[in-house]
């Protein structure tokens, strides 16, 4: 027991909680299955590695700022197969486009699962070790103009540097000159260096109209959209209305 105590202490100093927590279980396993020393050690090291990877993933997911997390595990690929083809989404889920530094644009009517799909892609990216930042376009622009210039600076630096930047609800409203300039900085800095994802309820041909002048608008859209992978649809059923609305009604919602 003295030995066990000392070991616990040593593991704490080495910051190896994964190994420490698994120790008793692995010791028992070792006795019942007559494991060799090397095998025993290897299992414990593996426990520590798994624990560290879990922690790092949790950190990346938190830093991404998804709010409500969504993944492909809870995505019904058949629901809007025509608007959001399963093969295309699954391919995006492999994150090869992130390694190729390509952009992605998903445009289509509200409620069809655009935000869900890009959060799921962001989740896959985090699982693969990528740094992800998810924001509605509005919120990111607001954060980049925070009263504290230090905070504004920090979020701008992150938005420029992450492997995957997801701007949800792009072209939601008109932008002023300063907002357009900030978007230009993002688009220019990230072009060819890291992937940017846009979703929008409006068709891309309407996007020019949100910019204060066509020159800066053209420059931004050229960088963000021109060479992007595009899923643009006018079709698609609203999952929010058809499935979630139906669930609410069956739960006794009498408002509709
Ligand atoms: P959009 O961004 O296109 O407006 P969302 O992604 O926000 O739509 O989807 C609306 C709601 O419906 C969300 O709660 C989302 O999780 C859910 N949803 C949409 N499509 C699917 C789907 N195919 N499978 C499961 N849930 C879905
Ligand atoms: Mg959305």
Low-pLDDT residue intervals, each spanning 5 or more residues:
none
Share of residues in helices: 55-70%
Number of helices: 11
- What is the average of the pLDDT values? 94
Bound molecule types = adenosine-5'-diphosphate, magnesium ion
The tally of beta strands, per DSSP, is 5
Calculate Rg over CA atoms.
Answer: 23 Å
Let me know the largest β-sheet. Answer: 5 strands, parallel
N-to-C SSE string, H for helix and E for strand: HHHHHEHEHHEHEHEH
Shape: elongated
SS-based structural class? Answer: alpha/beta
Distance between the termini: 67 Å
* Lateral strand order in the biggest sheet: 2-3-4-1-5
**Beta-strand fraction estimate:** 5-15%
Give structural attributes:
alpha/beta, 11 helices, elongated, binds adenosine-5'-diphosphate, binds magnesium ion
Description of the structure:
- Helix 9 runs parallel beside helix 10.
- The chain is elongated.
- By secondary structure, it is α/β, with parallel strands linked by helices.
- The protein has a five-stranded parallel β-sheet, with helices on both faces.
- The protein has helices at 2-13, 17-33, 37-64, 86-93, 96-99, 114-127, 137-143, 149-161, 177-190, 214-225, 239-250; strands at 104-107, 132-136, 164-168, 195-200, 229-232.
- Helices cover 55% and strands 9% of the residues.
- Strand 3, helix 9 and strand 4 (195-200) form a beta-alpha-beta unit.
- It has eleven helices and five strands.
- Adenosine-5'-diphosphate binds next to helix 6 and helix 11.
